[in-house]
Design a protein that fits this description.
With 273 residues, this protein is mainly alpha-helical. The protein has one domain: Orthogonal Bundle (Triphosphoribosyl-dephospho-CoA protein), CATH 1.10.4200.10. It is 73% helix and 0% strand. It has 14 helices and no strands.
């Protein structure tokens, strides 16, 4: 559900949506529908791993993720649409399975804690050793390159720290927007813009550097200063941002992944806690 809600959010500056390809010229809304259809099954497998295992859960989750990534690339023509989300969502599902296994409510606090336990070594054993991989000329990911260049931990840091952007920003904004009478699409955008304001978005860093990330965050701050989705001024400004982000090829894919995680945890609480 989170995957489909995220891609359906609009206006979503720089991102693919039902009405825009954003800053992308190699994918559209239907690319994401195919991608989501190809990887959704993996979420059930990751939840089952959480239910069954207590050992090295991350290694088992990654094995599922690697297979699902192969399926994703097969249906998208080798376009990376949701690799980061596959990693994040798989860990959340594994964490939810762990909550059920240990008789805990599947709420945001327990899921976040379980995520941090599953990803406890992501920074020390992966990012802090990436210099050695680079020295050996081994292949490194975009996120690893941004760690080397800027010291940001990206989605790995979010997981290891217990999803602070989701718990402290994404979920409260989403719930507050719904309680204020905004529609689900409006609440999604409100949450997305809040996540843009706080997240270390390695997709933006890769495309636009640190100046681009700062520009993204300042734009999100201004959006809320204008009232966000609660005001016409906020909505007008949002539409102008889509054109601006598209022009500068600024695609906040990291914030989009965190929005999907926000919706996932929101729905898990409703269904299981």
């Amino acid at each position: 559900m989170g995957m489909l809600y995220e891609i359906s959010a609009s206006p979503s500056p720089g991102l693919v949506s039902p009405v825009s390809c954003g800053a992308h010229d190699d994918m559209d809304y239907f690319t994401f529908l195919r991608s989501t259809s190809a990887i959704a099954y993996a979420m059930y497998l990751c939840a089952q791993i959480g239910l069954d295992e207590d050992g090295d859960i991350l290694t088992k989750l990654r094995a599922v993720g690697i297979e699902a990534e192969t399926r994703m690339l097969a249906v998208t023509g080798h376009i990376n649409t949701q690799k980061g989300l596959l990693f994040l969502a798989g860990i959340i599902c594994g964490a939810a399975g762990q909550c059920l296994k240990h008789g805990q409510p599947v709420d945001r606090h327990n899921v976040a804690l379980r995520c941090s336990r599953i990803g406890a070594d992501l920074i020390d054993k992966e990012l802090k050793t990436v210099q050695e991989k680079a020295a050996d000329q081994a292949g490194i990911s975009h996120g690893e390159r941004q760690y080397l260049r800027y010291g940001v931990t990206g989605i790995r840091g979010e997981v290891a720290r217990g999803l602070p952007s989701v718990i402290n920003t994404g979920l409260p904004l989403y719930e507050e927007a719904l309680a204020a009478g905004l529609s689900v699409p409006e609440a999604l955008v409100q949450s997305l813009m809040g996540l843009m304001k706080v997240a270390e978005d390695t997709t933006v860093l890769h495309r636009c550097g640190m100046n681009g990330l700062k520009r993204l965050q300042k734009s999100a701050v201004k959006f809320f200063t204008l009232g966000g989705m609660k005001t016409q001024a906020g909505k007008r400004y949002l539409r102008s941002l889509d054109a601006l982000f598209t022009k500068h090829r600024m695609s906040p894919g990291g914030a989009a992944d965190l929005l999907a995680a926000t919706v996932m945890i929101y729905q898990l609480e409703k269904d299981f806690s």
